[in-house]
């Protein structure tokens, strides 16, 4: 059995009907988590619209830090493949990068010279604010900076590149001055980072640093997002509504507001009075503190801090069923085939079933 | 379902029709007037203009760069136009859904997204699938990829290049081949800041001209209808008419489509060294019948420029408004998203606006000049109705001319041009010629057997723009989708593809190349038949043979 109402196993149809009842009765229903493939995200966003509800994603903080700086300041960006074949200098910035993307060094082929390098010289690799052992493991020159010092260090680096003074002193200032010279001497350099481990100030300083470097040479950013199709959901939201996640339909048209439509805030303040939680990739659970009644479309075996009204076990995209997902490897969407195809229902199919039970359908 | 459109002014230049008559539709097709049958529905369209559905050959409506523009500019697309409450996401401001609705409301039934890099085609198709009502197609961008440039460096084996292009179409589900400032992305990666027709691509030792010639020949060799769709060098720079003229020559008498020519119609006259050279360029187009062009008109309003001409886009970063841009490198193509505000009081923008209209009016054959704003680069497609009105009325142009700087007006010939487009010329330019250019044999005309894509407009000389913005009736595949300018319901459009045959040896070579260079399967970059998740997502367009 894969569907439950109040903890009791029921047929899928009955669970869908109960889910529809809960959503129909809500003043402001919330679609949250959204850890699903493109088809699941499409269905969820259309459902949120139909309900005049709001939607948010579990990885919104990182996703919107990235987008937030992008839409303030713009950016120069590229793909992992471009860095792999072209970059003669790679500057990693921030902690945990090889934890967030374990295949990073392999994907960028950091150990080999770039294919399109004219002289086949080894790549220069630096890691500002990473872990010494992790830096050593990928052959990067480690420049130690604590997380709280990172915004200052990147700003100091930007100043050094621009030939301006900064308040930084000592060994760090010296390392940054050396690094600045290396960056300026790069033919095609890339700053590699993730908004999962950087704050807005650092991202903005980095964006500015890269722009500055392009006055004389070529430099770009490789910013990678959260795994499990978080970027794909953001992109899907973009073309469907014009806006990223944290968008609501309460007034009958999409409005985007990163504060108003923060899922946790909506629940904790009581504004949202019912929720649909989606975590198809694994056992992820919500972080809200108030006990809003909710429906969970979740990976099998997910246990919640308080029981969902309705729980429906769904298949994992790319594992139980074919899926379209965002792939870091190619910085775009790819079609993935099921690795171990199963009968576990898909998020879009379950949402379709719930929609059929909504009033007015 | 049998439908009769009764007593309208039928404008169907493909069949020499320009007068009052009926159009009959059975199910999805136009038919001859049947004998002794009673239609299920009769629409009295007397006094209205009846045309085939319009076809837009060049409009950036979907894909990674368009979506980046959405994310970059949330302030530019607050929801502003209400749509029927029953249709999903009918109120979203700058969404795929809005795109389908607005195009359909203007009587457009087929729209081509002209710039899809080979590595992000799935993204483009996912967005296109969420554009309701209209049919779509993509042009696949080539010319910057290391594999192809190596083929050219090694002497440009003609068969291999043709196979490569056919394989790229198969991989991306494309309808045609586009090249953008050929070699320019590679040059920019090598720190070039300008790049001309006879400049050499770093590393590869071939010039932009040589890439263009090889692609032009390759497209002819694979036998698809649409000739190479070229965005040539030096876009947007004063004096670049010289580049456009040299590109017309470089076509060597062979078929070529030159995109958004307005952006190359600039001379160096006047004290600012910027003038309209559109008259000179139009004269050259008139004597180069092997080349078709689209205009890429500028209209005065806020927009965002979205282009794979990364060298050009990077150069524009300083004039971005609002002041934020995204410049994309990428392994097969660069791109840039740069917001821009065209203002009537700007000398430069006024020249651009006038140059676009001059091209429309001075190129004599309406089958050689295509109606575009290079959406959204010159203006959003939502300005089309105003543009139709401008080319149809000298009086209206004179009113607009009074609002631009006098010194700009004096550096164009626009004020002296009396020509006013007729409905028949409009239909040739936006229906007959695009269908022919893209090889869409059953579109662009109202011949019995044609697809029943039909637009019916009010004939209102006092307000042409209103009539073109809100069509009276629009049928897609014989299905009434617009009534009085309002969308009645959604339907799913198809993506048109060309699938020329080729020697699959090139696929094996490409697979080895991807394994070796990227350490990834080339299959990751393919658009699978089933990926879109709806039946009949694609429709194959026959090749010339």
Main sheet characteristics of chain B: 10 strands, parallel
Radius of gyration of chain B: 22 Å
Into how many domains do the coordinates of chain A divide? 2
Choose one word for the global shape of chain A. Answer: elongated
Would you tell me the structural class of the helices and strands of chain B? alpha/beta
Distance between the termini of chain B: 35 Å
The helix content of chain B is: 25-40%
What is the CATH domain class of the largest domain in chain A?
A: Alpha Beta
Strand order of the largest sheet of chain A: 2-1-15-14-13-3-4-11-12
Per the CATH scheme, the topology name of chain B is TIM Barrel
* Helix/strand order of chain A: EEHEHEHEHEHHEHEHHEHEHEEHEEEEEH
Q: Tell me the name of the CATH class of chain B.
A: Alpha Beta
% residues in beta strands of chain A: 15-25%
Question: Measured on Cα atoms, how large is the radius of gyration of chain A?
Answer: 23 Å
Estimated structural class of chain A = alpha/beta
- DSSP summary: helix tally of chain A: 13
N-end to C-end Cα span of chain A: 27 Å
How many strands of chain A?
Answer: 17
- The residue ranges of chain A in which pLDDT falls below 50 over 5 or more consecutive positions are none
What's the quaternary structure here? heterodimer
């Amino acid at each position: 059995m894969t569907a439950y109402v109040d903890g009791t196993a029921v047929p899928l149809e009955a669970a869908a009907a109960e889910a529809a009842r809960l959503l129909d009765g809500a003043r402001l229903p919330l679609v949250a988590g959204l850890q699903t493939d493109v088809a699941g995200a499409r269905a969820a966003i259309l459902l949120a619209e139909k309900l005049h509800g709001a939607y948010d994603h579990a990885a919104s903080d990182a996703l919107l830090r990235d987008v937030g700086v992008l839409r303030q300041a713009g950016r120069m960006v590229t793909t992992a493949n471009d860095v792999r074949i072209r970059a003669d200098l790679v500057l990693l910035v921030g902690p945990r990068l090889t934890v967030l993307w374990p295949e990073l060094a392999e994907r960028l082929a950091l150990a080999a010279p770039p294919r399109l390098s004219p002289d086949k010289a080894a790549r220069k690799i630096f890691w500002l604010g990473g872990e010494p052992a992790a830096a050593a493991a990928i052959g990067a020159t480690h420049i130690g900076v604590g997380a709280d010092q990172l915004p200052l260090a990147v700003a100091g680096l930007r100043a050094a590149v621009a030939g301006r003074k900064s308040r930084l002193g000592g060994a760090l200032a010296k390392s940054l001055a050396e690094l600045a010279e290396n960056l300026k001497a790069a033919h095609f350099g890339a700053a590699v980072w993730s908004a999962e481990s950087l704050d807005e100030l650092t991202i903005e300083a980095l964006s500015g640093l890269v722009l500055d470097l392009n006055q004389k040479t070529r430099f770009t950013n490789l910013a990678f997002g959260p795994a499990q199709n978080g970027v794909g959901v953001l992109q899907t939201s973009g073309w469907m509504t014009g806006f990223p996640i944290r968008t609501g339909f309460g007034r009958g048209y999409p409005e985007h507001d990163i504060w108003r439509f923060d899922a946790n805030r909506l629940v904790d303040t009581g504004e949202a009075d019912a929720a649909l939680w989606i975590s198809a990739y694994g056992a992820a659970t919500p972080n809200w503190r108030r006990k809003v009644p909710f429906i969970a479309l979740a990976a099998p075996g997910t246990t919640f801090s308080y029981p969902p009204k309705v729980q429906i076990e769904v298949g994992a995209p790319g594992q139980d069923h074919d899926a379209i997902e965002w792939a870091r490897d190619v910085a775009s969407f790819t079609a993935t085939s099921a690795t171990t195809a199963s009968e576990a229902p898909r998020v879009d199919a379950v949402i379709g079933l719930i929609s059929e039970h909504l009033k007015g359908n | 379902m049998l439908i009769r459109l009764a007593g309208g002014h039928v404008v169907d230049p493909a069949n020499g029709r320009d007068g009052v008559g009926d159009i009959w539709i059975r199910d999805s097709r136009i038919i001859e007037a049947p004998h002794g049958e009673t239609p299920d529905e009769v629409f009295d369209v007397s006094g209205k203009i009846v045309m085939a559905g319009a076809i837009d050959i060049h409009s950036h409506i979907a894909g990674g760069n368009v979506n980046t523009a959405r994310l970059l500019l949330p302030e530019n697309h607050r929801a502003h136009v209400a749509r029927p409450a029953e249709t999903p996401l009918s109120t979203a401001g700058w969404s795929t859904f809005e795109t389908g609705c607005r195009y359909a409301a203007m009587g457009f039934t087929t729209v081509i997204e002209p710039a899809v890099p080979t590595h992000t085609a799935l993204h483009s198709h996912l967005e296109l699938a969420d554009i309701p009502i209209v049919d779509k197609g993509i042009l696949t961008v080539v010319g910057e990829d290391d594999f192809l440039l190596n083929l050219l460096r090694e002497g440009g084996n003609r068969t291999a290049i043709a196979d490569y292009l056919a394989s790229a179409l198969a991989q991306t589900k494309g309808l045609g081949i586009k090249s953008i400032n050929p070699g320019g992305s590679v040059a920019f990666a090598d720190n070039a800041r300008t790049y001309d027709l006879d400049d050499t691509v770093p590393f590869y030792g071939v010039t932009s001209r040589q890439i263009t010639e090889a692609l032009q020949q390759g497209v002819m060799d694979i036998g698809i209808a649409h000739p190479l769709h070229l965005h040539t060098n030096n876009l947007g720079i004063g004096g670049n008419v010289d580049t456009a003229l040299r590109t017309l020559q470089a076509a060597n008498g062979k078929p070529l489509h030159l995109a958004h020519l307005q952006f190359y119609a600039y001379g160096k006259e006047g004290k600012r060294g910027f003038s309209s050279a559109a008259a000179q360029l139009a004269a050259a187009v008139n004597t180069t019948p092997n080349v078709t062009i689209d205009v890429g008109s500028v209209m005065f309003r806020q927009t965002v420029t979205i282009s794979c001409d990364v060298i050009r886009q990077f150069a524009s970063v300083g004039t971005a408004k609002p002041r934020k841009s995204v410049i994309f490198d990428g392994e097969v193509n660069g791109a840039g998203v740069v917001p821009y505000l065209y203002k009537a009081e700007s000398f430069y923008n006024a020249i651009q606006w006038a140059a676009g209209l001059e091209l429309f009016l001075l190129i004599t054959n309406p089958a050689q000049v295509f109606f575009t704003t290079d959406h959204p680069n010159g203006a959003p497609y939502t300005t089309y109705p105003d543009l139709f009105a401008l080319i149809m009325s000298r009086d209206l142009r004179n009113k607009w001319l009074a609002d631009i700087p006098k010194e700009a007006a004096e550096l164009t010939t626009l004020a002296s041009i009396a020509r006013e487009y007729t409905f028949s010329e409009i239909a040739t330019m936006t229906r007959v010629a695009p269908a022919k250019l893209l090889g869409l044999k059953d579109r662009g005309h109202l011949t019995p057997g044609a697809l029943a894509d039909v637009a019916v407009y009010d004939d209102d000389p006092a307000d042409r723009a209103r009539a073109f913005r809100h069509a009276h009736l629009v049928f897609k595949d014989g299905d009434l989708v617009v009534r009085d300018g309002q969308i009645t319901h959604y339907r799913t459009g198809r993506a048109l593809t060309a699938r020329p045959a080729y020697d699959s040896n090139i696929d094996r070579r490409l697979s080895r190349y991807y394994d070796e260079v990227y350490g990834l399967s080339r299959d990751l970059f393919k658009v699978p038949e089933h990926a879109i998740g709806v039946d009949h997502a694609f429709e194959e367009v026959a090749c010339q043979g």
